[in-house]
């Protein structure tokens, strides 16, 4: 490891225990300080982000605002203390299974975390984004591997975050940045790093997850990878609000040039739906949008050409891909349709994520058992969406919802998946290949649990217990206490 990386890893390791020992309210105030600093520097940061990513100003300002709100949400989570999941079993000589010792359990920070930043969310899933915010909230130092798509923004945001954390009294080494693929891999392999997080492609995520698992001491790794985000539209929904469906669909597919992990890639709907002209007209009104970088444009163009050339595919809105004088790609939406039989025949070509403004309508025959198709066609997804008529709750629809629950982290009704709200209950994860760990999330307050582990103290004297487990409870965190004498009555009043 080169001297710079050695210094960074050593600083993160040295900061780990002092940072873990900080009072939750002090850590919460530090997160708020970072949020305030990001908003205070919004004009300069957004200008740099626009130049490096090609994303629109309104989108980037909204994303920066979301990032600040996310930091404040985690601040509230930390200050509350419930995330520590404190459980106290009082000593009980009359316990039903024999004398029980005093046992006290809570969650502790894992230690330094390496976070691989995403390209398509230069604020919300990058330097100070959700992975960083939840790791810092948990009390873990963060080593951020910057994304090569926005290097200047990475360094400017780093400076804002470091200054805010220092001013809030957090230890040196709590937040640092490295650039370069080899550097990121080296840090992930370092034994002082205790967890990893990633947002990006399936191949890159598999590669990094493999490194984390193959270490001499394996570490937890949460990777958000790929998702097709299927949408299912019933005949009742078409009859009730076809115009609204067209508008919402095209807006969701084309937003940020389709460079969103929750973009609806496939819409299953009855044949004879009659939406072609409406979709074509709506797509034609979408102005060209720059993709993040030439590499992404090349990948999107190749994927689009392969789909358009597939037998049975009908172009509804062909869209286009054009390169400017600087080699940057500009695109408009492409929407195609295919019968279910043709999709099945060409599944190896068609059933793959398209990172850009492209979606496929899958036209089904009346009476098609969609619930039976889902396991055949779809792996794990971040989202699955159902559009049904008001009050529609047929056995077939219930069966579809039940099977979608097994294949997605978030099941939506009557909406579109590209809106990921920053709220406590949000689930942004799903079965493989949506993520490498389907038991967690990268958005919402539950994201903090990725960077915590449980530990219990048995028979410990009060003076040696950590603050959250002490009977005096100096941090004032919620404690679930199981007093002596309860066990003999368990189950009696059910």
From TrEMBL:
Coiled-coil boundaries: none
Residue ranges occupied by any Aldehyde dehydrogenase domain in the UniProt entry: 6-365
Domain of life: Bacteria
E.C. number(s) listed in UniProt: 1.2.1.4
A Pfam family this chain is assigned to: Aldedh
Keywords: Oxidoreductase
Any GO molecular function: aldehyde dehydrogenase (NADP+) activity
Name of the protein described by the UniProt record: NADP-dependent aldehyde dehydrogenase
Organism this protein belongs to: Agromyces terreus
């Amino acid at each position: 490891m080169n001297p710079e990386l050695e210094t960074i890893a050593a600083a993160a390791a040295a900061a780990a225990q002092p940072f873990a020992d900080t009072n939750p309210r002090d850590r919460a105030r530090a997160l708020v300080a970072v949020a305030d600093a990001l908003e205070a520097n919004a004009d300069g940061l957004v200008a740099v982000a626009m130049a490096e990513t090609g994303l629109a100003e309104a989108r980037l300002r909204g994303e920066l605002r979301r990032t600040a709100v996310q930091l404040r949400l985690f601040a509230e989570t930390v200050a509350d203390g419930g995330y520590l999941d404190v459980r106290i079993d009082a000593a009980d000589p009359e316990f039903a299974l024999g004398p029980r010792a005093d046992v006290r359990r809570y969650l502790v920070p894992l230690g330094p975390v390496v976070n691989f930043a995403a390209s398509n969310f230069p604020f919300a899933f990058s330097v100070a984004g959700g992975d960083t915010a939840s790791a810092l909230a948990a009390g873990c130092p963060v080593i951020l591997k910057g994304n090569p798509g926005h290097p200047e923004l990475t360094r400017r945001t780093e400076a804002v975050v470091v200054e805010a954390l220092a001013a809030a009294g957090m230890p040196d080494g709590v937040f640092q940045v490295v650039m370069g693929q080899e550097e990121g891999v080296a840090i992930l392999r370092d034994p002082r790093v205790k967890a990893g997080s990633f947002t990006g492609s399936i191949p890159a995520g598999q590669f990094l997850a493999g490194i984390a698992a193959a270490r001499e001491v394996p570490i937890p790794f949460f990777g958000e990878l790929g998702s097709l985000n299927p949408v299912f539209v019933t005949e009742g929904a078409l009859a009730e609000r076809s115009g609204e469906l067209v508008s919402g669909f095209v807006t969701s597919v084309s937003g940020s040039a389709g460079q969103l992990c929750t973009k609806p890639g496939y819409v299953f709907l009855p044949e004879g739906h009659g939406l072609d002209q409406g979709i074509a007209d709506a797509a034609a009104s979408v102005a060209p949008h720059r993709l993040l970088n030439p590499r992404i444009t090349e990948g999107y163009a190749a994927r689009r050409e392969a789909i358009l050339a597939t037998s049975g595919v009908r172009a509804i809105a062909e869209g286009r891909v054009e390169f400017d004088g600087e080699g940057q790609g500009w695109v408009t939406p492409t929407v195609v349709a295919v019968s279910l039989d043709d999709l099945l025949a060409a599944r190896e070509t068609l059933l793959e994520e398209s990172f850009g403004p492209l979606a496929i309508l899958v036209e089904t025959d009346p009476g098609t058992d969609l619930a039976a198709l889902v396991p055949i066609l779809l792996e794990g997804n971040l989202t699955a969406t159902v559009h049904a008529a008001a009050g529609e709750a047929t056995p077939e629809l219930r069966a579809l919802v039940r099977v979608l629950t097994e294949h997605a982290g978030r099941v939506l009704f009557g909406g579109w998946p590209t809106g990921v709200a920053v709220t406590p209950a949000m689930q942004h994860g799903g079965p493989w290949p949506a993520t490498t760990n389907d038991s967690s999330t990268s958005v919402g307050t539950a994201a903090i649990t990725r960077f915590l582990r449980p530990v219990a103290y048995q028979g410990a004297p009060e003076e040696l217990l950590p603050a959250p487990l002490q009977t005096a409870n100096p941090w004032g965190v919620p404690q679930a206490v199981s007093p002596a004498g309860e066990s003999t009555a368990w189950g009696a009043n059910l």
